[in-house]
Amino acid sequence: MGASLYRDDRHVQGSDMPVRFPLGADSIEVAASRYGMRRIHLISADGSQRRLDPTSGTPEHWRAQFSRRHPRGGRALAACAVIVLMTNLILFAPQLLDLVTHLPLWADRCTPFASPVDLPAWANTVLTVTAGLAGIERALTFRHHRLLDAETDGNES
After folding, report:
1. Model pLDDT for residues 12-26, shown as the tens digit of each residue
2. Transmembrane segments in this chain: where (predicted)?
């Protein structure tokens, strides 16, 4: 995934992410996750940082407008995303650990873990789809937590 820098509606520079575009003494840092932008900050010469507003016409801009027009709805959507990702982490992580520790590579080296959670395939599919949607919501609002958003991490900054 690449980032492009425009100045006065003209393409100035492009690069793979994460990237830091120099602007004289200041710079712009850009990074993305699998589901969208993770960071777009103006870094001043004194080290202070300010998140830049999303460009009009982008999904991030649409999500920011939704939160401005419907603050309660925006907060509810953000809270639901966190709940979905926490639930996914609690339910899916033990199953994944169970699966990995039963692989021949690990089964010979350690005692296999028996997950207390054993969901049917349809429930795991629902968890995966809702986690993807929650990841998109968090990316659109530039929210990121190392543990909570671990599965949505793409390019690291």
Report:
1. 888 888 889 988 899
2. 76-97, 117-136
Nearest to 142 by CA among 56, 36, 22: 36
Using alpha carbons, list the distances in angstroms from residue 66 to 41, 69, 70, 75, 145.
Answer: 21, 5, 6, 10, 22
pLDDT at 150 over 60: no
What residues does 97 pair with on adjacent strands?
none
According to DSSP, residue 54 is labeled: P
What are the boundaries of each domain within the chain?
2-56, 66-152
What is the signed CA dihedral for 100, 116, 152, 126, rounded to 10 degrees? 110
Phi, psi of 11 (to 5 degrees): -70, 125
Is there a cis peptide before residue 112, judged by omega within 30 degrees of 0?
Answer: no
Give the whole-angstrom CA distance, residue 153 versus residue 92.
17
* Model pLDDT, residue 39: 81
